[in-house]
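Response to reviewer comment R2.3. The reviewers asked that we include at least one raw input/output pair. We reproduce the pair for DUF3159 domain-containing protein here without editing.
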Amino acid sequence: MDTDRVESTTTQQAIEQMGGAWGLVFSTIPVIALVVAQLFLPLMPTLAVAIGAGAVLFVVRLVRGEKVPSAIGSLLGVGLAAGLVIWTGSVRDFFVIGIWFALAIFIPTAISVVAGRPLTGIIWNVVHGGTHAWREDRPTFRAHVIATSAIAVVHAAKFVVQQWMYVAGSITGLGVADVVMGAPLTIAVALVVVWAFRRSTKRLRAAETRHDETAAGPRQDDAITDNLIEERTL
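Raw output as returned:
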């Protein structure tokens, strides 16, 4: 089986679930619209601008051929954030869901690394049948420690920076942090995870090949021995 083809397919499916690289970039548009609008407009018109941007983005993503769940997820996220703002009356609460989501990702990924069971390795193992002793192969284990740690560090940084901006009441700062630490860092982390997956799969295939060669070795030796006996007999 072609290792690169297998991992490329897995990677492509994961990226498609997030709406693709452009989907991640497009998802920042409602945030930018909100930050700009709140500089000039009252609360409700500001939310109308953000929701309108989200609706337009939803249509654009469907026209581009993105999957409906990812497009709806983006619009739903904007709607939930706007609903929270309406409830609290503060524009900065538009970012609360994202802030606490970052913490929710950081905690399990960090714990899994400390516990010696990095989550990306567990996921890779499940994808490949769930029967591999991947933690016993040091290069594979290190790759998943790096990948899972990257996820943890990025989300910890998102939480710390945006929570700081939230407490300071800087809506512009929250918007800038959300955009800068959103799509670029997500794509960077995805590349690290892809690298860990591909490294793990290549080592798995290499181990399987060595096992097959070892299993075939004795049979080949037996065949050579039988031939020599026949030649001596003749």
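The chain has one domain: 3-212. The two ends are 44 Å apart (CA to CA). Further pairs are available on request from the corresponding author.
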